[in-house]
Amino acid sequence: MKDTLRHAGKRKQLVDVLIQKGIKDKAVLSAINTIPRHLFMDSSFEDHAYQDKAFPIAADQTISQPYTVAFQTELLEVEKNYKVLEIGTGSGYQTAVLCELGVKVYSIERQRELYKKTKAFLSKLGYRPKYLSFGDGYKGLEEYAPYDGIIVTAGAPYVPNPLLSQLKVGGRLVIPVGTDQQIMTLFIRKSEKEFEKHEFGEFRFVPLLEDKN
Ligand code: SAH
To answer: Which GO terms describe its biological process (predicted)?
Structure first.
């Protein structure tokens, strides 16, 4: 599959839909306008790649809905050269969005098949995350902590403590919390011990799974 003018036209329409739904961050919209989302999914979904929908990828997982990716990324409020940890690399689409924003991305995936496939794929597309890790996101990635931002792209039944403790003071954790459906939650680390918590709307993610490695 290639990226063509037809795809670019559809991307522009998707960006318009996201603007209508309330996404304002210009850098986020520009990243979505740039990234060939159709290449991140199975070719059988190519015609639908620029609809604002989640789709199945390998290993029973999904590529998140573009609105969700945009909403979470907007909440992270990243700046160039920020250090961001992503939990749930999946297709690598969210990773690519962060790379487009000039962020140093660290990302963890617990399914080996996806980890390997996405690592090769991102490199082929020319995206260079700092580090892709095969492991358990509940533990975060202590070696490279602290982070300016942490984004969890699977539904967490509770907020894992290591993720809070691996944030810089001033850093932001964006995490969908819940089992059947999730409340998008933002934690801002105000000091060593204090966190401010903000809740947003309901979303639906595949579950953040524990201890299966
Ligand atoms: N960011 C991805 C979303 C993929 S869906 C994208 O843009 O496509 C969520 C991903 O989280 C899945 O790939 C799933 O395998 C992964 N995941 C689930 N539990 C995890 C855990 N404990 N640690 C790391 N990744 C996990």
So the answer is: methylation; protein repair
